[in-house]
Every structure is written in structure tokens, then in C-alpha cells.
Design a protein that fits this description.
ten-stranded mixed β-sheet; single chain; 13% strand; 22 helices
């Protein structure tokens, strides 16, 4: 029988404990059992435990524990014998460790038992830290036992994060539902801050969408560095099973109600990495109240020109045909023109560049020369002059209008980006006329991302219905002046081919200024979505083997309750999972890739109108701008049929996201 005291079983200074219950039908995964039955729930729980054990066994120089909570509460007459310290539960069954470990498929000596004690989860986690640090460990990680295909690399990353922050750190592995699959801390940090961390665990609203945030906030107030690991998932109920099945190769075929599975991942096979976003700097001279990228990492060492060139070469080797340069303000990099010339000249790939504000005639000429006829500039402007300058700073509107004119004079065909903020909506028709007069022929609309500065400015976020009315008015104005609102043809072309989320992580990726890889550029700087580090590994390895990208590819739009039976889901594809995730986080709801899209009252009416028009006319309508070809319902201009961005020559200027 396991003992709560005593020396560490092995020589390792690190300990990892998997929290678990004995796998007995009716005693585990009761919410899941309500959907699939107790026997199926038990089988799934055994598989989940096995995945957690396998992940832990990949760690070197770590002692491994099962922190077992026996399933029954003891009877009142036996409570006195159990003792107050156990919280009224029998923490370890009356059987030798070897037998209990054998029931779990584990080998005694390689694994050890430790008891969970306490009345609720937060108290039990705090007591586990106490008990394991009492055995002499320098670092302890506690991991849940219900995450499918849990990456062992994430467990090692937790210990690495603690070692890198010797001044005091807490590592948290965020779960998509708002909890955490891992929490780790060092002995010195626990000793110095045990009161605060114990309170954080006990007071955290465990089982809710704010559990991780609750712990993180208390730790931050205590002055600790909170190291966030990549996002992962767990299995709580039947709605979690589709992703479980796709992540787990040997998932039971009858795990879902009604039987059957659908295990294929989106984007497989990974034949081509098509578009790459080069997020070349976080630096920016503006302080926009809706900026999603508010992280201040300017002291970190940005990638050098040579490092970026090597990364571009790695992308090209994987088939990349188009690059997007974005920031921050890319013009704050001294080597911007060199990077543009390398992509378009030496590598002969298309390049789009997002930037803010000024571009005088000489700069426009230099940009045109560096672009070798393969460059498309995109400038941000949010509303007419009073509104834009209130948001982006005095003089920004005039600088941007002048930049449009200068770029158009060089034949660069600038695209205007506009975020659909509440104060911007009434100004859209006048803005459209102004940018058309300045020389732009194309405008792209961006829906607000509830990440970063906009969290503190929620009044800037309009409803989807308000956006819909404004977009309809803008489209009418654009038709009068021959200005393409490229979202509309991009949305229409989705009717040519069923769409399942976007192509981020399936044929597109983003790379931040420090070599970190992400599926989507909007997530750059968010450690929960890091897919790899190009200063430590090759891009091909990240592209083909990253757990973060695998998880994304395992998720589908129809996994969402809201999308499962929506009549337009195959056209809209569930829209932007990134916007959905951050909107859910901001609202304190379960997030991740099953979070509901926040602007359905904009997107669904649009697609219903497109579909109705197609049924009435037999044609999809134009799916490209004035300069391109047009596809129809019979599939003409097939290059337009692919989802995502820059799917072909005719579609190069169309954007489905950001």
C-alpha cells in the first residue's frame, strides 16, 4: 500500500503524477457514460489513461506516479478510521501497489502510487504538491488522465520552462474547455509561494471555462512567471468524441452514439505548404485600440536576414508559392526590401505585404523594383478621416491615402484593409469613394479579433447584424464606383467546393519574428498555439509532425454544436476558428476549436442569400474581381474552387480570412 511520506523512490529530481481514478464501470466518466453507456465510457477512459501513461514514460530522469483517487466515499462508520487528512475518502485501495499498478497496465518500480486527499480537485492538487515535494523533488508536474494522444513533448516542455525561469515560475497546459491538462512548479517556488498557489488552486472554479485563468491570475499577482504550454483537449462527454477518434489511431469504432467513426484529418496528405505568413516584426509606431498583437517582445532577438532567407528556402522546398509579409509594421525592418526581393526575385514567388501609413513616391518605386512584378501591397485604413485618425493617430488617414496614390502610380494595385469596428461602419461608403479616387480598386473587410487591446475596448465590437447592414450598403456603393469588395467574391467561390474550417495549418502557416511557427498569423505570440520553433528544428519536421498542427487538423466545423446541422456550414466552413476561440475566452466560455463563431448573424444571412440566388439562377455569380475570370455553378475557372487564400492566378488577390 502506497505511503504519503518517505524518500523519493528513485534518484530523479523531477516527478510527474497522473491524476486518475480506478477504471471501474459506472465510477469514471459519468458525463460521457450518459451519452455512450458505462461500458464504452470505461473503455475510453482506459485508452485515455494509457495515452497519459505513454506520454509520461517518454520523459527521461523523472519519477512517475499515479495519483489515485479511489472511487467510493467511505461509510460514516468507517470515516473515523480513514482520518481527517484523507478528506473522507479512501485514497488508495487496500491492495499492494503491484496489484493496483498491474490493474492499470503499469510496472511497479517504473511507476509508483501516491494518494489524492482532499474534498475537491483544487485541494487535492495542492496536497499532491505538498506530498511530492516532501519526498525531495525539485520540480513536480501534475497531469490529468483524460487527454487523448497527449504529446510527451509538452510534458518535457513544462519542466524546461521551469528551469528557464529560476526566479519563480508556474507552467500551465491549457485545455480547450478552459481548464488545464497540466500544472507544474518548482520546489523553491512552491516553498516561497505555497500560500498563494494553494489558494489559487482551492479557489479556482474547477470544471468551468475560467479554471486556468483563475489560477494564472493569482500566480501573476504573486509575481510568478506563468509559462503557457500549447493547447490540448480532454474528453468529458459525447461531444468530445469526434476529435478523440481522429487523434487516437485505435479508437473504438462504436465509440460514438449510433456507431461509426470519421478519423481522417483535414489537409491530409500534406503534399503542399501553399501560403506562408512571415510576421517579420512586432514593432509598430501606432497604438490602435483594436490591435490583436499587443505583446511587448521587442527586447527579444528578431530573426536576422539570413535566418529569414533560410526559412524562405525551407518553405519553397515544401511547395510554397505565395508569401505574406506582415507585422507590426514591416517597414520598421531595415531589410524589408531585401526580403521582398529575395522572395520575388531569387525565389520567384508572389509576395503580399501588409503595412500602415506612409509610403512616399521614392519608397513606392523601391518597393515596385524589389517586387519584380510579383508584389501586392495592402494598407490599413479604418473609416473616414475623423474616425480613422481617432483610431490610428492624427495624420494617418492622409498618409495612407497618399500612399495608395503613390503605389498605384507604380502599378502595384494596392488593396485597402478595413476592420469592421462600430465607429467605422457608418463611414464605409464615403471611405470606399475616397480610396477609389486615390487609386485603389480593391477593398478587404476584416472582422474584429477579440484578442489584445480590443478586450479593453469592447464598445468597438459591433454585432453581426450591424455589420451585415453596413456591408450591404458598402457593396451597393462599391458597385456604383467599380470597387471590388473582395470578401464577397471570396465568399461566393466557397459555393464551388465544400469547406471545412479554413486552410490555416493545413496548407498555410505563419512564422513570428523569433522563429516560432503557428497555424494562423492572428495567433502569433500566443504560446497556446505554438506549433514549433525554427531556431531548434526544421520546418519540414514541424509541418509534418507538430502535435499542435495535428490537433488543428483533427478538428472540424461540424464538431461544433452550432454548426452540426447548419444549412450553410459546408459553404462558410464554420468561418474563423481563431475569432471563435478568442471571443469565447473574452466571454469566459469554453474556447478552443469547438467555440461558436461570434459573427454568425453576419455570415449566415450572406450565405443563405448566395445559396438562394444560386438556386434561382443556376449560377453562383462572380467569384473574382473585375480583373479576373468568373466561375459559375458548372465549375468553370476551376482554380477558384480551392478554399483558403491565393488559390491560383485568378484568385491571387482574393482573401478568405483575417
Amino acid at each position: 500500500m502506497a505511503d504519503d511520506a518517505g524518500a523519493a523512490p528513485g534518484a530523479a529530481r523531477r516527478a510527474i503524477a497522473i491524476t486518475a481514478r480506478r477504471p471501474l464501470a459506472g465510477a469514471v466518466k459519468t458525463r460521457l457514460a450518459a451519452d455512450v453507456g458505462a461500458d464504452v465510457a470505461l473503455d475510453i477512459y482506459r485508452r485515455l489513461l494509457k495515452d497519459s501513461f505513454v506520454a509520461a514514460e517518454k520523459l527521461r530522469s523523472a519519477d512517475r506516479f499515479v495519483a489515485l483517487l479511489d472511487e467510493p466515499c467511505v461509510s460514516p462508520e468507517d470515516a473515523g478510521r480513514v482520518g481527517e487528512r484523507s478528506g473522507g475518502r479512501r485514497p488508495i485501495p487496500d491492495a499492494p501497489d503491484e496489484k493496483v499498478l498491474g490493474e492499470l497496465g503499469l510496472v511497479a518500480g517504473r511507476w509508483h502510487l501516491v494518494s489524492q486527499r482532499g474534498d475537491h480537485l483544487g485541494e487535492r492538487l495542492a496536497n499532491l504538491f505538498d506530498d511530492l515535494f516532501a519526498r525531495g523533488y525539485s520540480m513536480v508536474a501534475l497531469v490529468n488522465g483524460d487527454s487523448p494522444a497527449l504529446p510527451g513533448a509538452y510534458l518535457e516542455q513544462a519542466f524546461t520552462s521551469l528551469a528557464e525561469h529560476r526566479d519563480g515560475a508556474l507552467a500551465l497546459g491549457p485545455a480547450a474547455d478552459g481548464g488545464f491538462y497540466l500544472i507544474a512548479v518548482g520546489s523553491a517556488t512552491w516553498k516561497a509561494h505555497s500560500a498563494e498557489l494553494r489558494r489559487a488552486l482551492i479557489e479556482a472554479r474547477m470544471g468551468t471555462a475560467t479554471a486556468r485563468v483563475d489560477v494564472e491570475r493569482v500566480a501573476a499577482r504573486a509575481g510568478l512567471t506563468v509559462a503557457i504550454l500549447p493547447l490540448w483537449v480532454d474528453v468529458d462527454d459525447g461531444a468530445d468524441l469526434p476529435v478523440f477518434e481522429r487523434l487516437t489511431a485505435d479508437a473504438a469504432t462504436d465509440a460514438r452514439p449510433g456507431g461509426g467513426t470519421s478519423r481522417a484529418l483535414r489537409g491530409e496528405p500534406l503534399d503542399t505548404l501553399r501560403d506562408v505568413y512571415l510576421h517579420v516584426t512586432d514593432r509598430c509606431g501606432l497604438g490602435c485600440p483594436h490591435c490583436y498583437n499587443r505583446a511587448d517582445r521587442r527586447l527579444a532577438r528578431e530573426l536576422t536576414t539570413e535566418e529569414w532567407r533560410d526559412i524562405i528556402d525551407q518553405c519553397v522546398a515544401l511547395g510554397t508559392t505565395s508569401f505574406v509579409i506582415i507585422g507590426g509594421d514591416p517597414f520598421l525592418r531595415d531589410d524589408l526590401l531585401d526580403l521582398v526581393a529575395y522572395v520575388s526575385g531569387e525565389r520567384e514567388r508572389r509576395v503580399r505585404i501588409f503595412f500602415n501609413g506612409r509610403c512616399d513616391p521614392s519608397t513606392a518605386a523601391l518597393l515596385a523594383a524589389a517586387g519584380h512584378g510579383l508584389i501586392r501591397p495592402l494598407l490599413s485604413i479604418d473609416g473616414d478621416e475623423p474616425v480613422n485618425d481617432l483610431i490610428r493617430g492624427t495624420g494617418n488617414y492622409r498618409d495612407t491615402i497618399d500612399a495608395i496614390t503613390n503605389l498605384a502610380a507604380e502599378g502595384l494595385h494596392p488593396v485597402v484593409n478595413t476592420v469592421l469596428l462600430a465607429p467605422v461602419l457608418p463611414t464605409l461608403p464615403s471611405l470606399a469613394r475616397a480610396v477609389k479616387e486615390a487609386g485603389a480598386t480593391q477593398m478587404h473587410l476584416i472582422l474584429p479579433h477579440e484578442r489584445g487591446a480590443i478586450i479593453e475596448n469592447p464598445d468597438l465590437i459591433p454585432s453581426g447584424a450591424e455589420m451585415l447592414a453596413a456591408v450591404e450598403e458598402l457593396v451597393a456603393t462599391a458597385a456604383e464606383i467599380s470597387l471590388t469588395i473582395d470578401n464577397v467574391p471570396a465568399w461566393r467561390r466557397r459555393l464551388l467546393k465544400a469547406r471545412d474550417f479554413c486552410t490555416a495549418g493545413c496548407s498555410d502557416i505563419a512564422i513570428d519574428p523569433f522563429g516560432k511557427v503557428y497555424a494562423c498569423t492572428i495567433t502569433c505570440g500566443d504560446p497556446a498555439f505554438v506549433a514549433g520553433d525554427l531556431r531548434r528544428e526544421r520546418l519540414e519536421d514541424v509541418w509534418r509532425r507538430s502535435p499542435a498542427l495535428t490537433l488543428l487538423r483533427a478538428c472540424r466545423a461540424r464538431d461544433r454544436v452550432e454548426c452540426a446541422h447548419c444549412p450553410v456550414v459546408d459553404a462558410c466552413g464554420g468561418e474563423c476558428w481563431v475569432q471563435a476561440h478568442y471571443a469565447a475566452v473574452a466571454a469566459g466560455r469554453p474556447a478552443g476549436l469547438r467555440a461558436p463563431f461570434p459573427y454568425c448573424d453576419l455570415i449566415r444571412p450572406l450565405f443563405e442569400a448566395f445559396i438562394d440566388e444560386t438556386r434561382r439562377t443556376g449560377r453562383i455569380g462572380p467569384v473574382c474581381g473585375p480583373a479576373g475570370t468568373c466561375a459559375t455553378a458548372d465549375g468553370a475557372a476551376a482554380s477558384a474552387a480551392a478554399g483558403g487564400q491565393a488559390a491560383g492566378e485568378a484568385d491571387y488577390a482574393l482573401f478568405d480570412c483575417i
